[in-house]
Here is the input.
Amino acid sequence: MKTALTIKGTHCNACKILIEDVAKEIPGVIMCDVDYASGKTLIEHNENIDWKKLKKEIENLGNYMIETL
Amino acid sequence: MQNKHTRKKVKYKIHGMHCASCEVLIERKFKKIYGVESVVVSQTKNCAEIICTQEPHISQLDNAVKEHGYRVYNWGDGSTEIQLSSKRNLFEAGAIFLILLGAYLILKQFNFIPNIGISENMSLGVVFVIGLIAATSTCIAVTGGLLLAVAAKYNEKNPDLTGVQRFRPHIYFNAGRIVSYTVLGAATGALGSFLTISAKATGILTILASIIMIALGFQLLKIFPGAKRLQLKMPKFIQHKIHNLSSSNSKFASFVLGGFTFFLPCGFTQALQLYVLSRGDYKTGALTMLVFSLGTLPALLSLSAISSFSKGKFQRYFLKFSGVLVVMLGVFNINNGLTLAGSNFNFSSIFQKDITPISQVADPNVEIINGKQIVKMKVDYIDYIPMQFTVYKGIPVEWQVDGRNAAGCVQVLTVPKLGITEYLPKDSIKTITFTPQEVGEIKFRCSMGMTDPRAKFTVIENPNTGSLPIKKGGQPEKQPTENTPACNPEIQNCLEAQKVSLEVSRERGVYPQLLTVKKGIPVDLTINNKVQLGGCMSVWVIPKYNVTIPMKVGAIKTTFTPTETGTIALTCSMGSLMARFSIIN
Here is the structure.
């Protein structure tokens, strides 16, 4: 299944790559795509996804903020 | 735990980093390489320090991050590379500096740049350019990110929008931004006036604003790696608050957020806020911030275009160009700030070693030559350029006014405090001489008071009173040149003046309308004025002979000698005909 999120604070390609990398390491995440200009993020995942961990890991990177929709 | 002994610390140069995300990204990539235990990447130092049990090959590291646009070099190689590139940077910056300086000098020659820099008269054009630069460099990071977040949110909640509708949040955001900049700019200016900031404090504020600008300039130039750290960062909790607010998607929220950007830590905005504060005038404040926000508008409205163009070579040079420009503006301003703060140090003195101390004037528009303060002013339509001068008390001022482009009532220049009223001839430069006797302001204006009320001389104490090199001991002040040379009956045959008179009354207007006088003989004109005259009528002029007549109620006497036959006009200060003289042989 796919979930769309918005991540605030992304401003460059480094942010995109970083977030995608981190997200893909979270159990349950299959694919992640970030558009750094808008912060729109699409995550492909299964039922086991640990949303809390995902949020924590990404927000720990720095200035990012996730809002779940 | 024997590993500990075999651990090594290796340092690498990394090229291509520009933000904290880059640091984290590279750290993560390197950690995955076999043998690497920990990585510390520093964007400001452009380096990565690796602690490893087995030193990875440089190509391994390079390959890991190459695809993301970073390059890894050995610390030794890298540093020569860096030196080269920073030399090149310096070279380019130097070249741009020379170009800009040349352009400035040329434009100055043609008087295209009346005022540059955050000075008391910072022109709005300069503010606009600062806005343009700001939006395409530092502000885009802070404001742009926020705007994109707002827009994305809005569009997400309303997925079925047309292109124009999608653009709406941008409009609300920017409208909010412009409105708040204007209003808060006015508020900042008003705050400044409320605080009644002294000249010294204004100077210090100006210097502060200039330092921020210079730091930003260096940051754009990337010459000094240290300058990177100068950027102010917003405390995280505020950032979170603002981002939270952007979660609500109403138009109002877009508007309010746009407004809040006034408080975002963009160095340029801060520099201008300081400037506005120091000016202490709500009108200037509103106008300055309005123009600045308009300057940032093009970039903010075309965010996507900007971010795509920001990769190319063009941006590299654009940033360099902006960087040099900003540093130059900063230096100009520091100069102004130093003057205001009461320091006699002047940047131009660095370049002019052999000047005498008295030549160090507080105002670059005032030159001291032969013990006189030469002030040059141009009148363009109804503007005095420049319109403010700083002169020293007790030193004669020779005020050369080029009024050839003066319009209407501005053809007559009055200095009420000194009782000077002068007609500015259409074909030559008028020289007015006076000696300021006390510290303070001497305002000047046109005969109708329509010119900028800020036009003035600021008279300051002469810092070198003791060593004033006024030559020949005496007062070198010239008597104002008289239109009629006084006749001395002892050495020449004086012609008896022709006495003529005019009457100005409600009943008869100006009577008579035509006066006939002889050529070559002084004319004693008496105007019997019975009416309180205002506006352009408060000063009458005989343009042909540069005679100005302040029209008080009562009998007003003036003298001139006609040198040519024909008809000449007596006009009001705006040029309307009042009466005529017919000059005969």
Remarks:
- The longest helix of chain A spans residues 13-25.
- Chain A is about 35% helix and 35% strand.
- Chain A touches chain B at residues 4, 6, 8-15, 17-18, 21-22, 37-40, 61-63, 65, 67, 69 (CB under 8 Å).
- Residues 5 and 69 of chain A are 6 Å apart (CA to CA).
